[in-house]
Structure formats: structure tokens, C-alpha cells
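Checked the freezer inventory, then went back to the computational side. Two predictions to log before the end of the day. The first one is the construct we discussed on Monday; recording sequence and C-alpha cells without edits.
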Amino acid sequence: MTEKTYPVPDRLNSLLVGGVLLAAIGLLWLGTRLPGAWILLPALGYSFVLLTNYALIHEATHSVLHSDPRRNHFYGMILGWLFPISFTVLRVTHIVHHCCNRTDHEMFDCYYAGDNRLIKYIQWYGLLLGLWWILIPIGTLLLAVVPRLLVSSPFRRARSTAVLFDDFGAHEIRWIRLEVLGGILFWITVFIALGLNWSLLAIYYACFAFNWSTRQYVTHAFTRRDVRDGALNLRVSPVMKWVLLNGHWDLVHHQHPHVSWYYLEELGRHSEAPVSYWRQYLRLWRGPRPCTEAGPAILPKTRYQEM
């Protein structure tokens, strides 16, 4: 069976998009009506709803959220507003991730002898604690307003951002600006309609930032330095399978990046056996490790498209 025989589950994905939007708005509304510490309950729920939201945006970056390209982009855009991020920013940078996985540009879990260990530890634990999440909406705004800044010398010198912003041409910048403007109007409308306040949003997004960040590197840390196979399949609970939309099958995803989440478990039967999520997650808190192995070369985007 070839990858072309895996149809996108358009109807199911459309239902999930609608369900996530309704659940997120509902939890924001609920938070405005609860006193004191009770707000933490919907905030925690919101953090998990936005994990599914991110999983759906991720599908859109691979053009498998909907088989209609226009609807795929529209869904990705409105879901991106909840993150918040421009869908175009995530689509472009996520392809970079697939081409740079486990290269030196994404070697957060290890350090070479010449690296500054203090910076590596700050970078690593900042990632685990969710502190770097705020850089994503800030980076999106910078790309919309002053895109040349992110390809200036300081970003070129940093290993993690040296190639991250290379693929933003005039067409992408126009889309980013439209999506950012749409996101601002979306949040103004929601803010007024629901009677939100900044402290509520800070609590909600602090919960989400931590929850999301704990899962962003857990499938890649300490894996082989291979662009395609440098990932893990993880063993999670049945509930989390749906929350993550099979995102725990990340090795399978990297080997078949153009296949819908719906089929990853099926493909996983022919992949490496899943390892314990919690065992892998707790390993992360021991900190980055020294590395003596050279990283792989960046995968050309033409090769990624052929995978």
C-alpha cells in the first residue's frame, strides 16, 4: 500500500476543528465566571484542548487536515489564532524541522565540547518549563512587521535560528500579515464578547505553554542523529491518543510525513515499538548531555516532498 492510498478524513477533521473551537471558547467563557483558584480547572482543560488544536494545525502544515487546499489553509489559519501563531509561519518552519531534525540546528538535548554549557542548560530548561512559548507569538509579530530583522546577523549566528527563517519570501510575508491581522481582530472580538481579562489569559496560556512545551521535544531527545529516523514512538493512555491525535507516533510521522494522523497507529505496527512516555519525559529533566557524534546533513526540501 502506498501513501497515496491514505485519504484525508475530511469530515472527521472538520468536526474536530469545530469541536476544538467551541471547547476553547466555552472554557474561556467559563473562566470569566469562576471565582479565585477555581479558574485553574478550566485553564488546565484549555491547555489540553489546545494540544489537540496544535495537532490539527500540524496536520494542516502537511496539507492533510482537509483535502481541499483552500479549506486546509483556512482551518490552519483560524486554529493558529488560538495558539496564537500565523499558520504560514508554522507551516514554513515545520517543514524546516522535518529537514533539520537532529542536525546541529535542532540539537537542544546535547552539547559539543566547545559549546557554552550554561547557555545550553538555560535553553533546555527554558524549553521544558514553557518559557520559550512566548517567543513564538513575538516572532510571528516580528515577521509581520520587520521580517528582515529575523535574517539579520544575530539570528544568523545562532545555531538554532541560522536557517529557520530562510524560506519567507514576499508571498509568505503577505500571508503572515493577513493572518496576524485576522488573529488580532479575532482576539478583540473574543475579548469583548466574553468579557475576558488579561490575568485570566495569562493563567490559561501559562498552563498551555507548560503543557505544550513538555511534549515538543520528548519524542526527539537523545534519539539517533538522523533526520528521518531521529524520533520515538511513545506509549500513552487511550485518552491522550485522542488528545494528541496520534502525535505520540512521531517516528512513524517522520517516516511518513504526508500521511494523516488517522493512519499513524496502523503504520506503527511496522515501526519500532513505543517506549514509555513518562520514562522518556523524566529523562529530559536530567539535562542535556555531551555529544561526540557529528550531526546529519540537512535534508533538501525536494527529498522531503518525495518522502
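The second is the one RB wanted added to the comparison set:
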Amino acid sequence: MNLLSRLLLRNDDKGSLSSVEALNSDIQNLSRAEFDEMLELANSNHVVVRAMDVLLHLAREAHDDTRAEWAFTAQATERARITTALTFLTQICDSFREHGHDVTVIKSLDHWPDLGSDLDLYTDTKYQDVIRLMKTRFQAQLAPRSWGDRLARKWNFLIPGLPEAVEIHMGRLGQTGEQLVIASNIVKRSRRVLIGEHGFRVPSASDRLMISTLQRMYRHFYFRLCDIIDSAELADMGAIDYVDLQSSATDAGIWEGVATYLVIVSDYAKHYRGTGLDLPQFVRASARFGGEEIYYNKEFLRVPIMPQSARLYGTQLAGMLRRMELHSSARLGLLPWLATAALVGQKLTGSDKGIW
């Protein structure tokens, strides 16, 4: 993870000569086995295209034809996968619109020019209509649904010719489908972006960051490197309206989680490139902890569950109860039991399949 982070968060303008030389030396001494290991890590963290682009550039500058060839081949393979996935994604979105249904691509395109390991969409359309459309138009099969999938109101579709699953969230967001507030705004606040030759509706910057926060701080409790890169890029571009983000996240009961997420991103970026994000003071003041609490384990940057993330969960649940969002509170209250069942299942069978 260290070499990947140095490649993707390097600062050519402010980096010291010694750090640049050290990076170049590490690349030139990279064995094939070490490259394959890094490539696997880049794939898990959804940064293959971006990492290989930097590696290819540095290898060519050093006239290192061997490692340039490794990077070029790996990048070309990943770009071919992405091209196929985008073709299917375009057809799916076009089919929704042709049938009068709104659909927004969430998460998957945040990593562009990389792409996630599945294709995620959000729609307010009735699930019966979505299932009918996917089966009729794409001969899709429904993947088995876990307890968590049912609570979250999401369905996974397997389409012939498409290696990635298509995960469609319908009417709700969050691990237990507790987030009606964010879900209700996704479509109307979405914006159109051009990805290559394809046009898609994607969430606003605020909604995108809240969805990322729900994933990282309230569900998986780990960051992929792409989360750091993607969110830092949003901030560096000046694309984040922090006042709108605070208002929206407060309504959703996850403002402290969002603030903590951003401070973690800022701290990690600062560690590698020398500068963090230009966050307003009210964001930093609302964060419960920062990058000093995260640690690397099993390919990802881990967020401690106890007590840090547990406190964020408690704050979210307490806020829903205060606002008398009883249905959503009941759903969110099931999360510890769901997590416990998944942990027991993992220990007994080696898998949490069917639960989480």
C-alpha cells in the first residue's frame, strides 16, 4: 500500500529530491512478483488505471522498458474490462430512460478513469418494474439476496457477457435501508457527466460524499485507496459545497461521520503529498477522529469499530429517534444483530454469505 500511495499521492512540485529519487529507485528495483502483488492490491483498491499510468510514465522516463511493458499490459487489460462494462452500463441506463424510469449511477463512476468491481445504480422505480426490465431486456438473472440486501432494498443482477454484477438500490440507501433522506434527493440533485463517449446521471458532490461515508464509516469500516484519491480530487477541484454538505448530512444524521471521513482523507493525503485538504474549520471541529486512528490490514485502510465507529452509529441512531423516524430507526437498530450474525457465520462456515 505504501508504494501505491506514494505513486498516486506524490507531489512533484513539493516533494523533496530524496523522496523522488527513492520512488524511482523502488520502481526500478521492482521484481515481477512484487509488481504482480502491487497490481493485485491496485485492483482491490480500484486504482489500476491511475497507478499503471504513473508507473508507465516513470518507467519510460527512466528508459526502463521491462517495467513499462508490465504497466502498459496491465493498464490495457483493465481498460478493456472497463470499456465492456461502460457499454453495458450505457445500455442499462438508456433502457431505464426509454421506459420512463429515472436512474442514477452511484459509486462506480466515482473512481474514473478506474471503475468499481460491480456496477451500482439507484432508482425510485418499483422493484417489480426493474426486475421485469432487467430480465426482459438483458436476460438478467437475480443473484441470491442476503438478509442485508433485503433490508437495504437492493438487488443484484447477473447479465450474460458482463463479468460485473449490476447492483440496483431501490428507494433506500444504507446498510439496513435506513437512509430515506439521502435516497429521496439522489435523483433530483443528480448531474449529467460525460465518461468517454457515454453520458450518465451521477450524484451531486454532497450526495456522493455521503454515500461514500455510509459505506466506509457505517458499513465496511475500511477505506480503499480510491476513496482517498477520489475525495481528495473533489476537494482540490473546489467541487464541494461544504455548507450544503453539512446541511444535507445533518438532515441524514451522519454529519459527524462525514466530517470524520473528510479529515481522515485529508490526514492520509497530507502524509504522502505534504498537504491535506483545505477543509473549513467547522468540518474539522465536527470530526470525531482523524487519520491517526486508521491502520493498514488485509489490503485496506481499516477504521476501528470500537469505540470510534460505534459512537458514530450511536449518534446516527439517536438522531433518528429524536426526529421520530421510527421505521428507519428500527431498521438501523438491526445492524448490530446483522453484524453479529455475519461474524458468527464467518467463524462457523468461513463465509458470511446470505447474511451481510
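For RB: Residues 344-349 have pLDDT under 50 and may be disordered. The two ends are 27 Å apart (CA to CA). Let me know if you want it refolded.
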